[in-house]
Amino acid sequence: MTETIHSAASLWLALSVLTIPLFSALVCFVISEKFAWLSPMVSSLLLFITFICSAFLFFQVGDSHALTYSWPWFSVNENIIRASLLLDKHGLIMVMVVSLVSFLVHLYSIGYMAEDQALIRYFGMLGFFTFAMLGLVMSSNLLILFCFWELVGFSSYRLIGHWYEKQEAAKASTKAFLINRVGDLGFLIGLMILWSWLGNLDITYLNLETIPTFWLTTAGVCIFIGVIGKSAQFPLFHWLPDAMEGPTPVSALIHAATMVAAGVFLLIRIESLFTENTLVIISVTGTITAITGAIGALFQYDIKKILAYSTISQLGFMVMAIGAGAAQGGFLHLLHHAFFKAGLFLGAGAIIHAMHQAYHHQEGNVDVQDIRNLGDLRKKIPITFITFMICSAALAGLPFTSGFVSKELILTQMNEWSGNAFSWKWLVILGAWVVTLLTPVYTFRMVWFIFFAKSKHNVEMVEVPIVMRLSMFVISMSSLALLITFKPFHILTIINVLMSLYPNTSHLITLLSTLILLIALVSAFFMYKNYELKDQNKFLTPNLYLDWLSDYAFKLVLQFAILVHWFDRKVIDKIINGLTYLQVGIAHVTGWSDRYLVDGVVNGMAYSAKGIGSVTRSLANGKIQSYLLWAMAGLLIFILWILY
Amino acid sequence: MNDPLQHIFESVSLLIPEVIITASLIITILLGLILKTNKHVILKTLALASYGLAIFIVLHHLPTTSTLLFGGMIRIDEFSSYFKFLFLTGGILGVWISGPQKENSSAEYFLLFHAVILGSCLLASSMNFIMVILSLELISLSSYLLTGFGFNKKSAEGSLKYFLFGTVATACMIYGISIIYGIAGTLDFSSELFLKNLIALSSPLLLIAGLFTLAGFLFKITAVPFHLWAPDVYESAPTPVVAFISVVPKLAGIAVLTKFTLAIHLFGQSGYNWQVILSVISLLSILIGNLSAIAQTNPKRMLAYSSVAQSGFLLVGLVAFGMDGIHFMLFYSTVFLVMNFLVFNALNQFENSYGELGIQSLAGLGTLSIIPSLAILIGFVSLTGLPPTAGFTAKLFIFGSLWGAYQQSGELILLVLFVIGLLNTVISLFFYLKIPYYLFIKEKKETANSIKSDVAGNLLSLILVIVLFYLFISPDKLMGWINKITFVL
Amino acid sequence: MRHLLSYLIFTPLLAAVVGLLIPATQKNTFRVFALLISIIQIVIMVLIALHYEHHDGIQLSERLPWISMDLGQWGTMKAEYFVALDGLSFPMVALSVAIISIAVISSWTIEKNQKGYFILMLILNGAIMGSFCALDFLLFYVFFEFLLLPMYFLIGIWGGPRREHASIKFFLYTLLGSILILIVIIALYLSFQDPTSGKVLVHTFNMLHMQNPENIIPGSILSIDSTDLLGPYSYRLWAFLLLFIGFAIKLPAVPLHTWLPDAHVEAPTPISVILAALLLKFGAYGLLRFAYPIFPDGAIYFSWLVGFVGVVSIIYGALNALSSKDLKRLIAYSSVSHMGFVLLGLASITVEGVTGAVYQMFSHGIISAMLFLITGVLYDRTHDRLIANYSGLASKMKVFTGFVLIAFFASLGLPGLAGFIGEVMILFGAFLSQKANGLLPIWMAIVATFGLLLGAGYYLWTIQRMFYGPFSVKIPAAEMNDLNHREYVMLLPLAMAALFFGVLPQTLLNFINPFAQQFVEALFKSASFINP
Amino acid sequence: MSDHTLLFALGAFLFSAGLLIVLTKKNAIMILLGIELMLNASNLNLILFNRQNPTTYEGQFFALFVILVAVCEAAVGIAIILKAYHYFHTSVPDQFSDLKERN
Amino acid sequence: MNPGQLTLYLFVFTAIISVLVMIFTRTVFYAALALTVCLISMAGIYALLYAEFLAITQLVIYAGGVLVLILFGIMLTNRISGKPLITESHHVIKSAIISAGMFLILLVTYQKTSFDQSQSAPAPGNHINKIGIELMSNYVAPFELGGILLLVCLIGAALMASSFKKNDHV
């Protein structure tokens, strides 16, 4: 009896969590232009309710076994595709995170987007995105999941292109959707394989014994291609930096905290599907992505671009972790990353917003997102500085922050996975450590030039509005390990349920990673202390052997970065662009062939019909005797033909 | 001496329709001499009345069993009666659309009409080459003269060409018949003797003679390769005359061609495959007719080529060499008569209002003169063979019988004819749509003024359109009638 | 109530006759009249829906003798007025009623010769209904041919600058297809007998009899034991091939599609809507209704070819759409691509594929109608359809852009909108085919998915070029107002439908599922009867 | 060579010669003459073949009616030629070219 | 070679010669005269073939009627120039091939045909009488039809040849 009440209540909660954001979107779209100012309030309120509901839902379900609810959606060939909700621990935590971050971003946007002309569209799409994301997280049928997966992409497309008057935004949105589509095709093919072997796509009922290993591997790889697209993995990651053309809160919500993490989430959801070979591909892809992203972040000037590359790197790190058997660590990192990266973006937004306000009265166009134009902000906007610092620390993996906790866990688990004998797995491990090293370096660089370095421009600045500060504060607090663990070196996360599953990390790894962190920070400090950023990177004269070493290393890495960047811009982009151009080119060729060949054949037939006609007509030249001649000749030919 | 005389009298009593027309012919001559005013109206009424009476007699008073008359010269049977019905109907329609004649030549005009009808009726029922030649010549010579009734330069030229081409074809045919006579020993092509002798003496000479004879018939039905006169003649002759001579003599030719080919085919015992020969002629007619029509700019020239193609389609029914093929050919003939007159009637209305026409000069007239334009549209749709007109049904039936024949004989040429023939519908669309296209789609010129209202013409169009639709919706009534016709050579 | 289908078919035809009697000077009465007829048809359609039961048989059937005549040695030929609905035709008829109503509303702005226009529309209306309801092959053919002529004039008189060319091309191509079909019809009717007629040999056009290979007359050319070959194939295979080509022209499948862009570009908006939403469906409908059930052996033998043509159409159509500079041409090519999916689903002969194909037919009907209305909205304002001449429309025409987004994303297969379900089902079916019946290779399904990518490509690029960026229009005098009420009334129901059938596909699948299952089952059953 | 063969050959020769004249000579009256030759060839055949069954006169009757036909044709032909001459001032059919294909 | 046969050969020879004249002469008038010669020789051949009635008809109607008509036509169409009517030839080679082809094919196929060549003597009696009776009994239908044909042709020809007006010289 209690069980039914319990599950009925959670069903209603789950449904309301799912539909309230949708309702929010509808409300926004229904509101007339006159009352556009209402939409931020209403939708933020609704999202707050969503968050409350999701929290209730989480505690309602708690650590009991996963709940599923399903309704038939449609049927084909006697197989019923069921729309089903799967409420398990992973899912519910994600629901919480999504609704919380989304609520905070809504709140933040009230301030950030206050002067925007298209509030309705903005908050509507935010609501719709939240709905789609929650649907993705909660659904247990892969087809439904795929639907939400695409819808998430759609809302991302709309939000990136929010300022569509700007050509860059328009292009970036198109690019994002298209590259996501490439991944989605892989996903779809994976679904096709599963359907053809199982006739069923419900995660909870997948009967994997009936699939041959080859097809299982293929299906896994195909679905992973979907993840590559959505989670910006190598080689489909370059849409993410471009996506920064969207409003900054959107970047925080979609391109840092939730949507891009959906891929990682999916990997955890369908872990059972992956065979050994699939995992290899996943881990290697993750490693490459993580390193490339980190190096990319090292050489960007745009705050948001730095954060974007950093996101790529972190996502790669998570994917690598999952591929390398550190699924729990990966998931934990996913949660933590959601908060600290959202916090960083919100902070960046605050900086941009404040700078905009500051430059509003001044002449000249200054790119306020460029870290070369920033500096010395720590005193001007202290609250932003503090929150930003906390989140940066988490990103860098400083102790006492959430980032440290999950990083430790991943490294530990990977260590166990790699075993003692040398194998290719060690390369992956090495990659993980390289990322651990690089992350603090670029984080330091970013923070240094924003807040500490000497400023070129001296302008009066004021702090951002209270709603923005509030949300930044909340989000940065959730990145502090102090609030979620009591022993910084001894992992105990907030969520005891989760913790019970986790093995302890080894102290050796903790020590090692802290050491690496120190080295990174120290060397970064010396490197950037007197360093002035210019268009051409000029390096400090090597006054120390270390400097020379680091300089040399930097040069090497720089060359590699340039190469990577070149590769990214020239090869991958060109390939994709080139594919597009090629497509257009081929399309022109086919268009031409359509006009001249296919049509030509048909028209040619018509012409030849006319031609034959004109020959037969030319017999009728008006001269009776040639008529007779032809007639008699015809008769003669006829006779000869029959006779012989 | 009593018996032959008795026989002659009996024979005449069964030839009442022809006698009526002959009487009408003679009265026409006399009235032409007597009357001074209203000649045209009176003679037109006379012609209509006599044709109507003749139709009545054909439908109700002729024996349904086949009867030989005049010592085997003529046979009255349902086959010929049906054709007589068609000729007389064609006569009525042709007279209906004929306007007053120039040069005060009404009497001669109707006289020649009567002569063509008389010749056709006799041709359809003649069973002897002598009768064939004489009635064919009656038709031909009258047609040559009718063609000249435009009384202008063009008309004279057309008439001369028609005459020269026709006489050469006739000469060939007579020569061919003379050889056939030499082989068969008789001129009665339905007799046992004819059959026996031909089977006994299967020689290539017979093939040549047969083809020479065919030449005359092919000339009459404007089939390839004896079709070249058609465009010039159609262009030059007055439209009512073209309407008339493109239907009645052609159907008469088809009637006698049916008999002749069945005779020479010798129930399949001929040494030569006449089925193949006819298929090739039919195929060529369809192809050449349709292809040549595409680039025409004169509507009547275009219709001439269309008429060539239609002959090809008519021959398709014959190619099947079976009773059902002949039945469907009769159905097609009926529909052909209706749709041809529908088109020519409308064209005639346009010519009466606007004078001689090229296709271009019809541009934009569709909205000005809606009834003739719609009539012409429906007529062309039917000629193309599209539903919902009887042209579709007719084509469906006739090609159905062809498929049946193919299924039975497995002759590849029949399959080729089947496919090419049907595909020609598409080619024919090119030109059949041309006139409706100019009428409705092209922008009209400034100078165009509305058509003279022509109640009789519009009424005729309405009737013919209704017939076309009726024969589409319920072809089984007419087919039921046609199916009762049994035809034995 | 027993003659609902006849009412549906003949109401517009009778109305056309009545319309002839109204003097042409009564200008605006014609459109009201046509709208009235459409409303009556909607009422009839609602009644039909109420009487329809979901099972796999035919329903609401009406049979009257039409032609019955003695063929002498060939027996008797029988054609009937036989109309009925099943799970295939019901969605199509419902779609037709809806689309034609919208087309009538869309025709409100027609000024030139309203009488002729609306009478032709009514004739077209009746012919479309008749074609979808007919279960006698000859009756279908008659209705089908009958609709070509009004279409020809509608394009030719009320079309764009190159309308003459386009209308002729349309007519010729489709007539060519029809003739190929007619060839097979003639061959068929001498090969099938009516089993209910006892000892008398009765040839029939009845589809129910033609679907059963036991009714083939032994010894006829198309009989199953005939071993005659014509070139490489038996006559049965040739017949299937002819039917396939005939219907593929209508579909249209590459390389027989070139009439489509021309016809679409030149046709007036309402006619484009009808052309894309309804007329293209006849190709697929004909294959589903006639070609496949009558020649299951051909269907299986040529499934590779059909699938290949489908895949090529998908990719080729999409590539062409990508390179199109004219918005209407782009949409026309996208139709080629989308109808390629139908072909692919059909070729797989799996329940999924067939279900998807029918679903795709329906959803494409809705979506393409919307797309063409959208181009119409633009064309009405500027008389310009070149993509390059527009930019930043989103900032001036907000509601319009909303509809454009719905239509484009529905067309590129965004889940939640109608286009997705059909395409996914088709891809599932095509992929399943190799495992289930070994007909289609797997790569076809995989290559076909790239059609989805390309689809996204050209639509998004179009949005980017036309709707995003700073506002500018090439035609300076044009006033770019947002949608007016009439346009809103046309687009809203379609958008709702696109959403509805994307979210709740089962409403439609209730009709399609029984049909698809019975279709595949019967097809393999008769195939095994033919080739044991 | 028997008489039969000789006479048949004569007939064939007359026919071919008539055809040749019809095809080559430019004057309409010459064409008429050629046609007369062709008809005579038929008559010769008919009479020749009539001898195979001399009890009937079929061939001869046919020949008689062919002569009748020839007369009628000549009459009509001359009339039409005169008419055309009236318009064109020539009796050369090639110069009558109002009616032909116009491109 | 009996006298009958010799006469036959003579007639055949004259016929051939006159036809050759027709082919090669350029003057229409000569051609018409040659045709007359040819027709007369044909009449002779008919007579030799026991078809006296036809021979006479040939002489009377053809040589007497038709040719006069044709000569009349020649005169009429010649009236303007006054010079003898000269005719040119064209399509000579093509036509010659076709005619020769016809001729050869007729001969070749004749050779392959086994005709009954018996030259049985005709039944004794008055042929012309019998022909008359036959004409009015068995052949009455064609006879009457022939009458109508003549009537129609003459009226028509008269109309054609007479109805000229000055204003239709167009």
In short:
The complex is a heteropentamer of chains A (644), B (489), C (532), D (103) and E (170). Chain B has helices at 2-14, 16-34, 39-60, 78-97, 106-125, 129-147, 153-184, 192-200, 204-220, 229-236, 239-245, 248-265, 274-293, 299-319, 323-354, 370-384, 390-409, 412-432, 434-441, 455-473, 475-483; strands at 67-69, 74-76. Chain B has 489 residues and is mostly helical.
Structure description:
The complex is a heteropentamer of chains A (644), B (489), C (532), D (103) and E (170). In chain A, helix 2 (38-61) runs antiparallel to helix 3. Chain A has helices at residues 2-30, 38-61, 89-112, 119-138, 142-160, 167-198, 213-230, 239-242, 248-257, 259-269, 276-298, 303-323, 327-359, 382-396, 402-418, 424-452, 466-477, 481-484, 496-499, 507-528, 545-618, 624-643, and strands at 67-76, 79-87. The longest helix of chain A is centred in the last third of the chain and has 74 residues, at 545-618. Chain A has 644 residues and is mainly α. In chain A, strand 1 and strand 2 (79-87) form a beta hairpin. In chain A, strands 1-2 form a two-stranded antiparallel ribbon. Chain B has 21 helices and 2 strands. Chain B is mainly alpha-helical and 489 residues long. By secondary structure, chain C is mainly alpha-helical. Chain C has a domain at 302-524. Chain C has 21 helices and 7 strands. Chain E is mainly alpha-helical. Chain E folds into 2 domains: 1-93, Four Helix Bundle (Hemerythrin (Met), subunit A) (Up-down Bundle); 125-170, no CATH class. The termini of chain E are far apart. Residues 166-170 of chain E have low confidence and may be disordered.
Largest sheet of chain B: 2 strands, antiparallel
Q: Classify the beta-strand content of chain B into a percent band.
A: under 5%
The structural class of chain B is mainly alpha
Whole-number radius of gyration of chain B? 22 Å
At the fourth level of CATH, the homologous superfamily of the largest domain in chain E is NADH-ubiquinone/plastoquinone oxidoreductase chain 6, subunit NuoJ
Spatial extent as radius of gyration of chain E: 21 Å
The number of helical runs of chain E is: 6
